[in-house]
Automatic annotation (TrEMBL), chains A, B:
Similarity-based family: Belongs to the FAD-binding oxidoreductase/transferase type 4 family.
Listed InterPro entries: FAD-bd_oxidored_4_C, FAD-bd_PCMH, FAD-bd_PCMH-like_sf, FAD-bd_PCMH_sub2, FAD-linked_Oxase-like_C, FAD-linked_OxidoTrans_Type4, Oxid_FAD_bind_N, Vanillyl_alc_oxidase_C-sub2
Record key words, sorted: FAD, Flavoprotein, Oxidoreductase
Keyword Cytoplasm recorded: no
Gene3D superfamilies, alphabetized: 3.30.465.10, 3.30.70.2740, Vanillyl-alcohol Oxidase, Chain A, domain 4
Domain FAD-binding PCMH-type: 36-216
Superkingdom: Bacteria
Protein's name according to its UniProt entry: Glycolate oxidase subunit GlcD
Gene Ontology MF terms in the entry: FAD binding; oxidoreductase activity
Origin organism lineage: Bacteria, Pseudomonadati, Campylobacterota, Epsilonproteobacteria, Campylobacterales
Cofactor(s), names only, from the UniProt record: FAD
Amino acid sequence: MIDKKHLDYLTSIVEQDNIKTDKAHLIAFCYDATKSRFEPDAVVFPRNEEEISKILKYCNEHKIIIVPRGAGSGFTGGALPSNGGIILSLERHMNKLLEIDMQNMVAVVQPGLINMQLQKAVEEVGLFYPPDPASEEYSTLGGNVSENAGGMRAAKYGITKDYVVALRAVLPNGDIIVAGKKTIKDVAGYNTAGILIASEGTLAVITEITLKLIPKPKFKKTYMGVFPSVNSAMTAVFKSLASGANPVAMEFLDALVIKALKQKFPQISLPEHAGGILIGDVDGSSLADVDEQLNILKNSFGENGSIDFIVALDEEEGKKLWFARRNASPATMVFGTKKLNEDISVPRSKLPEALDEIYKIGEKYGFQVPCFGHAGDGNIHVNVMVKDKNNEKEMSDGHKAIEEIFQLVVDMGGTLSGEHGIGISKAPFMNIAFTEAEMNLFRNIKKAFDPNNILNPFKMGL
Amino acid sequence: MIDKKHLDYLTSIVEQDNIKTDKAHLIAFCYDATKSRFEPDAVVFPRNEEEISKILKYCNEHKIIIVPRGAGSGFTGGALPSNGGIILSLERHMNKLLEIDMQNMVAVVQPGLINMQLQKAVEEVGLFYPPDPASEEYSTLGGNVSENAGGMRAAKYGITKDYVVALRAVLPNGDIIVAGKKTIKDVAGYNTAGILIASEGTLAVITEITLKLIPKPKFKKTYMGVFPSVNSAMTAVFKSLASGANPVAMEFLDALVIKALKQKFPQISLPEHAGGILIGDVDGSSLADVDEQLNILKNSFGENGSIDFIVALDEEEGKKLWFARRNASPATMVFGTKKLNEDISVPRSKLPEALDEIYKIGEKYGFQVPCFGHAGDGNIHVNVMVKDKNNEKEMSDGHKAIEEIFQLVVDMGGTLSGEHGIGISKAPFMNIAFTEAEMNLFRNIKKAFDPNNILNPFKMGL
């Protein structure tokens, strides 16, 4: 419960209509894409950076917890008020596309702008914003920056951090800072934008984002490589990329996901006897470029045992190929009532071994573990399927399996998260990935920005 | 002077041969590419990370200043012991190329490895490390990371930060940390690698660097665009890039630099009546690609008033075109006895106006201000030429001109430094570029890593 005098002061900043404490609002802002639910004490919708500054300054002085929130589409509870406090929602007012600067090829946006709205706007003027997380239709760019979101096109074009040119942000004490300029290069002062990216809203509230744009690729085709086994598909991933293939995306579906898709979408056309599938686009400035890329892929896939290589004849057919990938996540639910899904990431050369071992861990506990995801950048969504979520033993085994998978991944030189972040869901596993020295440094960095620990506190295992 | 008991302890760590206090060594390690000279109290050559950890732990406990140093080729005094202390030289032992991982397309190096040695080694196996600072023949990769070095190829391929995949580092308290993995994506924990890049050796001693490699481009040609004026050349820079040109490099020489080159190298073949020149390479996976790129450039340059567009017929001729750019810096010395050179960076669209105003500032004080540099990324080397460095009035005017130029650049949304860093040379200008809130944040970050302020202290205006 928040003190009435605090509420009154905050109301004086944002006006009555932009602060809510009624049950409906508290429930509407208690969730994200995890199953966890935490009701905030209030929800505030600031209208501009100045209001955010005033709110933070006040909450810092009175040690009131503030949790910044975009669309609430995160997978790890990063935007949940797990320790109470006020939700600072950026989606109602701070959602504008401020500028498309064609001359410098950057866009300036507010944090609450939806990713896809930016993509569409810049493509209309011949430019391109590559990061395309699966949540692109509803996730916000502020959230994308705070989690360093990836996406399908990361194999060729990189991830959110590769496009952040500059940020404006408000520190917990209310100070407004600028990190970076509309310049390609800037080495004056510490790279504060660098540390704000992926900081999960724990260091500052991002109020403005300048993003690099590139020319829109002219030509694109969709391919699908069919492999007899997961191992051969995973080997083809790193060998084809190391031999010079440069696809926009190289997405993976394993045999279980293919089975689930066929069961859930009987009309789907997917190859028989496929042990693993790689699907993606290639693009280029000419059709010859595109076809050359397809040739490199086809040859390299062939050398690594592919049994078929399909190229979509047109965009419509391309969409059909992509349908399988886009529906992989919901399809896996045919295997259980609860999915423990993690987005591990390993050096690409470790993919074959990693998948082999992950399936073995599943077998040991009796779980089916359908896997799919961004193989081109070593980032796989691993889904431990629990048949009966009310079976305590099974749930507990599921969590044991997940912990073993994390340990395996870290031992292979991989990471707990390729794109979802740590939040609260993965916080218990931080000690697998980081030493006490590293955790200490994280705590010191947190303290440097937020000495009173008011901004999204106790996340990331801190 | 360093206490004998400290020396004895440090000697016990690195052994006699790896610690020096004789005058010859103190002089040999007192300089960089600035004209400033500061003798250290001792020079230590650690043999491995463990020794670095022990040294830092001890110096932290005894509040002894440590200044990490690569090749000492910096332009802003970042590696100078301007407040005394011990030079920690990484060039004698910590200079190995540890691994070229072909499967994951990364190289693992020690900080003292020379940039060009890496470039050569990876090109031998068909890979490519793009960042190529002008100092590539002698600067170290540790220094490149600490300054976030740019280079000629940044227009297409980006700068050092775009290639740092992971770092190992020792904190001032002796803790060894790992920041990042050999994975493309990693969003677990704060992005400590992000803040170490460009931190000028003030936060930690980098002990190992994992760098992204890309396939070596197959074909390359060199072009030169000739313009009647600086303004038309600068306009062509941002307009051609915004219209889809994607050259490897787009380097600029102004009329004064051209004049200086002709005077210093009478045999040089440079176009008459050129007010500005743009020179660079284009590359691609086929000759058709390369020629298409050249066409885009030629057309776009033409639309912006170019009077000639020259394409080198072969590599030899390409080298001749590059000769002018590579010798721009020494050539400018025909205009004076002292050069006050700064590497300002502005949003590319501001280049024409920025150069116009810079020349006006030069005129006001009676200086010739030859300019050249990485126009493709908005980063220009501005040289205020002092005729008589012993003339106090002239020197003082020179510094006033520099300060006005910095103010101009910051007002235009630019930055004090595109690639040289702040060090001690630009520290007096930090208040032009940063607010007190931003400086406070920098100080807090510094404290989070280095509470005793022993690591390269008082640099960057901190």
